[in-house]
Amino acid sequence: MTIALCPGSFDPPTNGHVDVIQRSLAIFDEVVVGVIGNPSKSPMFSAEERVDLLRKVFTGVDRVGVETFDGLLVDFAVGRGIDVIVKGLRGVADFDSELQMAQMNHHLSGIETCFVATNPSHGYISSSLVKEVARLGGNTDRLVPAEVQQALNAKVPR
């Protein structure tokens, strides 16, 4: 059985994130979604809220687990018996930074990274842009799952 880890801040989870996680399920037996706590970033949603949102999005999908963590990604991965890290790529800029991270993670732990190209229909979506559009009163309902849209509406009333 091969267990993959899809890590990220997921603040908030987007349709691009969901796409990469779903496509990872077609490749690996189980997918753990690792939500990075990272309170120094001043997130819109707490780590617990992001975990809850992702669990709602993947309700009924028994091969997806969602957990939060702090510290080194590879320490979390090794502690959970993770076989591979999965990272979604929107474009070349993502590749440059993610390749360096993948090499460091391999150096630290021996864990390989698998890159999954984001579906082009989601390539322009980022959590940062979703938050900015929401804060400025724009429509984000085609950028995030319905469960996330409800939470955004509660955080940023229109």
What does this entry look like structurally?
The protein has a single domain (3-123), classed as 3-Layer(aba) Sandwich (Rossmann fold). Helix content is 42%, strand content 20%. It has helices at 15-25, 47-57, 73-79, 92-109, 127-135, 146-155; strands at residues 3-8, 30-36, 64-69, 84-89, 112-117. A five-stranded parallel beta sheet has the order 3-2-1-4-5, with helices on both faces. Helix 4 links the parallel strand 4 and strand 5 (112-117). Helix 2 (47-57) runs antiparallel to helix 6 (146-155). It is globular.
Percentage of residues in helical conformation: 40-55%
The secondary-structure element order is EHEHEHEHEHH
Number of strands: 5
β content, as a range? Answer: 15-25%
Oligomerization category of the chains in this entry: single chain
CATH superfamily: HUPs
Q: Helices, strands, pairings?
A:
Elements (H helix, E strand, L loop, with lengths): L2 E6 L6 H11 L4 E7 L10 H11 L6 E6 L3 H7 L4 E6 L2 H18 L2 E6 L9 H9 L10 H10 L3
Parallel strand pairs: 1-2, 1-4, 2-3, 4-5
Q: What can be said about this structure in brief?
A:
This protein is of the alpha/beta class and 158 residues long. It has one domain (3-123): HUPs (Rossmann fold). It contains six helices and five strands; from the N terminus they run E-H-E-H-E-H-E-H-E-H-H.
Structural key phrases:
158 residues; alpha/beta; Rossmann fold; five-stranded parallel sheet; 6 helices; 5 strands; 20% strand
